[in-house]
Automatic annotation (TrEMBL):
SUPFAM superfamilies cross-referenced by the UniProt entry: Kelch motif
Organism classification: Eukaryota, Metazoa, Spiralia, Gnathifera, Rotifera
Classification via InterPro entries: Gal_Oxidase_central_sf (IPR037293), Kelch-typ_b-propeller (IPR015915), Kelch_1 (IPR006652)
Protein name: Uncharacterized protein
Region entry Disordered, spans: 34-53
Length: 326
């Protein structure tokens, strides 16, 4: 079983401030006395202030141990986990329900795979593509959350593992690079959900796997780094979704593979860590789409590769896990 831990804000002991005030009310009696009668009334008002504090707590464990799997947040708020290594039945899918903290078995994928990609389509279905199962795969499948069933869809033109997948603004899905039995790929393909078919499109300028792909606010896709069979890359390139063309853009300051790339709220892209041909690195840099240039920014406290990066609602990027150099 695979155990999960979730970070959430939790309500803690409240602070209560009590405000007291006295009010004197003077009233004239109906008697013949010339002295007024006074009545003093005390009122008390309580104000409660609730503070929040972050904390980790355990949640339900998956039914199968997994590595190199995918996790996809569905439109209904549940999380679909599929594939990976080390599980007793690698075809079994599982659903996590945040409201109950429990995992349930869902439909089994038709082909066992690890190192694949998963993308949520605009219709809410999940497209799983490629990966490996003894050899590299070109098969693709669709998961329907309304039925919990998997159906095969068109095969990619090339088997690939360690590739990227990006949902474009027009609803098509872009797959780039990856690794096949011969080495790194520069080929790219588009999946059309309406026809269930893959089309080979223009190749990247550099073959690569272990790279990143980020959908920019203008609809273009930025691909960074990776490995090309010889060494890690510091090259980057842009896919123009309106023309289907690839153009090189500014090189990163450091070569890196198995890193992360996050589109920030200011429309810049933050790249962190990765492997730099010698070891894991703690370096980070920012890409500015308006100038096509990279700028080194603050280093992480720990060098890491194969980690994750999550953009939080407040604009901060959370980095977790990975593999270090020690």
């Amino acid at each position: 079983m695979l155990k999960f831990v979730i970070l959430v804000p939790q309500e803690v002991e409240t602070t209560i401030a009590t405000l007291s005030s006295s009010m004197t009310i003077t009233s004239l009696a109906t008697s013949t006395s010339t002295l007024p009668q006074t009545t003093t009334t005390t009122t008390t008002t309580s104000t409660t202030t609730t503070t929040q504090q972050s904390g980790w707590f355990r949640t339900g464990s998956t039914n199968n141990v997994r590595e190199r799997h995918t996790a996809s947040l569905l439109i209904n708020g549940k999380v679909l986990v599929i594939g990976g290594l080390y599980n007793a039945d690698p075809t079994i899918g599982e659903l996590y329900d945040p409201s109950s903290g429990t995992w349930t078995i869902t439909g089994s994928i038709n082909n066992a795979r690890e190192g694949h990609t998963a993308s949520i389509l605009k219709n809410g279905q999940v497209l799983v593509a490629g990966g490996a199962n003894g050899g590299n795969l070109n098969t693709a499948e669709l998961y329907d959350p309304s039925t919990g069933m998997w159906t095969t869809t068109g095969h990619m033109n090339h088997p690939r593992d360690g590739h990227t997948i990006s949902l474009l603004t027009n609803g098509h899905v872009l797959v780039t690079g990856g690794l096949n039995g011969l080495g790194a790929l520069n080929s790219t393909e588009l999946y059309n959900p309406l026809t269930g078919t893959w089309t080979l499109i223009n190749t990247m300028n550099n073959a690569r796997y272990g790279h990143t792909a980020s959908l920019l606010t203008n609809g273009n896709v930025l691909v960074t780094g990776g490995y090309n069979n010889l060494a890690g890359l510091h090259s980057t390139e842009l896919y123009d979704s309106s023309t289907g063309m690839w153009t090189t853009t500014g090189n990163m300051n450091y070569a890196r593979e198995r890193h992360t790339a996050s589109l920030l709220i200011n429309e810049k892209v933050l790249v962190t860590g990765g492997y730099n041909n010698l070891s894991a690195t703690n370096t980070t840099e920012l890409y500015d789409p308006s100038s096509g240039t990279w700028t080194i920014t603050g280093s992480m406290n720990h060098a890491r590769e194969q980690h994750t990066a999550s953009l939080l609602r407040n604009g901060i990027v959370l980095i977790t896990g990975g593999r270090g150099h020690s």
